[in-house]
Structure to design on (451 residues):
């Protein structure tokens, strides 16, 4: 560490920036190598020279690069934009460091986290059931509110049943990991969420990615490779969390039918956002719930809670409930969290104007940003609007400058996205006002000139 420190002193700002850039590139190359390595099996009988370094966490690949990046950022006086402390409910505004900011870093799309009815439902559930259910549902038993939530989710998606898990990420990992195996193929959009990739890795299935939203490329892959595998799963998202665009769902449904594959849609960012009543991408396209085999969603975003769910036909849900390790061997959803999400769904259904307003405000943000010449990438104006910056350093600097101007937005840097696609990512809430959006877009344009 000291050695690194000494090496940095005396460097010009440009040299330090280039050092950070190099660390990022090194990490990117190493990630690509690791991906290639996992595809190769270690040669049998090869001996690995065992040294003390292999017993130290600070020698793990990546840690040193992280330290170099941190140190160089300190030297450049770039403060860390991550782990900012919010002192209250984070919605369209949030208090950070004692100061109220316009906030674009929460998935509280319909302003339901912090809604009095939702908070009250959680408090009542604590009084009745306590804060934890203390074991898995098969072992510790059910709470009525867990079942009511699952019924409400199934109704939202127009499916026979649903099952909730305590983590959205783990929902994808355990469901894909359990349902598919080494004789199967999983085809996924190139921009699919990490949790899906982890699930595929766990399953041992063969994995292929198709270019973003390109159903024609997917069709060619299915024509060429379908016959080599038993089961085939296609995975897409309802709204892509980094880019704010969506797939042409009917085309994917048609393909999965023709090629006898399963289709899974991750609705983490589209439930509560797409469709007149917020029922998601199926409602947007006028597609029946049964047309998609596996609906996945999270409770941590629109639904003001925590956890994830799978909705689909009875056989799928029963199978997951009785066998998926992430359900069977993991604690059940705490009653206050289940009650919060259930109440959030009820408020959403009683007040569809929230969904309409979210849509209007998102489109307003997108239109204003484009007028200012900002690069909003692929965004279609549904709740997620990126502003592309060109590099991780620029994205971090822009985020810090905006915070100084009373606007909180997170930078998305490598490895979450490709380095040249580093960005600020704006999550719009139905409670953002047009005045807040105008002020924000003007501040971005201003800050960009300062950089
Ligand atoms: C598309 C997608 N799927 C799954 C998840 C995981 O959900 P959670 O954060 O609720 O665990 C996320 C999280 O942001 C996501 O964006």
């Amino acid at each position: 560490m000291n050695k690194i420190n000494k090496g940095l002193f005396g460097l010009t700002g440009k040299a330090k920036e280039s050092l950070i850039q190099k660390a990022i590139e090194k990490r990117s190359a190493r990630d690509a190598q690791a991906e290639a390595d996992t595809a190769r099996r270690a040669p049998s009988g090869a001996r690995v020279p065992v040294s003390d370094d292999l017993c130290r966490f600070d020698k793990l690949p990546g840690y040193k690069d992280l330290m170099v990046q941190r140190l160089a950022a300190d030297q450049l006086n770039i403060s860390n934009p991550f782990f900012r402390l919010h002192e209250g409910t984070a919605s369209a505004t949030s208090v950070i460091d004692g100061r109220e900011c316009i906030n674009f870093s929460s998935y509280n799309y319909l302003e339901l986290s912090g809604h009095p009815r939702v908070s009250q439902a959680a408090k009542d559930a604590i009084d009745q059931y306590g804060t934890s259910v203390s074991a898995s549902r098969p072992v510790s038993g059910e709470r009525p509110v867990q079942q009511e939530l699952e019924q409400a989710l199934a109704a939202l998606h127009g499916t026979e049943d649903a099952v909730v898990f305590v983590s959205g990420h783990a929902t994808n990992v355990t469901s894909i990991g359990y349902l598919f195996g080494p004789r199967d193929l999983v085809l996924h959009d190139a921009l699919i969420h990490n949790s899906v990739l982890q699930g595929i890795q766990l399953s041992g299935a063969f994995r292929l990615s198709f270019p973003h939203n390109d159903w024609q490329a997917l069709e060619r892959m299915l024509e060429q490779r379908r016959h080599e595998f038993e089961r085939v799963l296609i995975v897409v998202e309802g709204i892509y969390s980094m880019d704010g665009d969506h797939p042409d769902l009917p085309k994917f449904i048609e393909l999965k039918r023709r090629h006898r594959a399963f289709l899974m849609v991750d609705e983490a960012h589209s439930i509560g956002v797409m469709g007149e009543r917020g029922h998601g991408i199926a409602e947007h396209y006028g597609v029946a719930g049964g047309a998609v085999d596996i609906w996945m969603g999270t409770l941590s975003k629109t639904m003001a809670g925590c956890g994830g769910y799978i909705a689909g036909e009875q056989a799928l849900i029963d199978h997951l409930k009785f066998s998926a390790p992430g359900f069977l061997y993991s604690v059940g959803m705490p009653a206050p969290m289940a009650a919060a999400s259930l109440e959030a769904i009820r408020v959403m259904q009683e007040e569809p104007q929230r969904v309409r307003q979210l849509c209007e405000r998102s489109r307003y943000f997108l239109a204003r940003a484009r007028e200012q010449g900002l690069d909003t990438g692929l965004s279609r104006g549904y709740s997620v609007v990126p502003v592309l910056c060109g590099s991780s350093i620029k994205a971090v600097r822009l985020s810090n400058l905006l915070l100084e101007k009373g606007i909180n937005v997170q930078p998305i840097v490598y490895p979450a996205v490709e380095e040249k696609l580093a960005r600020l990512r704006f999550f719009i809430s139905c409670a953002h006002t047009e005045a807040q959006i105008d002020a924000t877009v003007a501040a971005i344009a201003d800050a960009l000139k300062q950089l």
Observations:
- Residues 167-169, 172, 193, 195, 237, 241, 266, 268-269, 298, 300, 308 surround pyridoxal-5'-phosphate (CB under 6 Å).
